[in-house]
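JOB MANIFEST
job_type = single_chain_structure
chain_count = 1
residues = 266
[input]
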Amino acid sequence: MTETSTALVSYTVESGIATIKLDRPTASNALNRAMKDQLLRALSAAGTDDSVRAVALVAAGKNFCVGQDLAEHVEALRADPAHAMDTVREHYNPLVRALHDIAVPVVAGITGACVGAGLGLVLAADIRIAGTRAKFGTAFTGIGLASDSALSASLTGLVGKSRATALFLLGDTFDAETAHAWGLVHRVVADEEVADQTAALAARLAAGPTAAFAAVKALIAANARADLDAVLAREAVAQQRLGASVDHIAAVEAFLAKQRPVFIGH
């Protein structure tokens, strides 16, 4: 068994299965810079290790991932709002690209909150298993942003333009059964079974024809209606502009102060 443990992401390889675990449970696995760097290293390791035949993406604690760490983000906004959203190009785009580039199957196991960039990460996986108490949401417009992590393409591709537009504009959350009905998750299981079910499905795939699986993934990606890199680039431009807006900066400050944001439209 190969094992690499870091403060915020753990990476293990056993019997051909790479398990990548988000491990910042006290912060609901909110993504700060260090965690994003560690996650990218883990994904890169899984994608370049010939012994890896499947990947399990899971998280410690009650919540899978609540997206960007806003406490860290507000510090970036206060220091330099024009560059606070550089993280989209520097971190989120590479993370999504790395997930898409892994040739072997990637299974995500989701419990609790999975919103914002967290949702973008799991939608970049191939198969998703959700716990009964999982909650999903886009979250971006609630703090005056649009979307990143390829959500504008991945979510729309799964649920359709009309529903995706409503989910982005209204920011409503939806539960695991709804996610299953809409085709976002493959299976819903008891929360305490998510890790085992994810590992079992990854093991089943690891025992399969991985060359054929890689071809299937490549064909699906090549035939997708929107080019992933173009989607990521357009999202980054929008987030860069909105990240320096009065609305976004005020909304993040309000969120951290547990106050309701007031939007003025610029």
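[summary]
The chain is about 50% helix and 15% strand.
The first strand starts at residue 2 and ends at 5.
exit_status = 0
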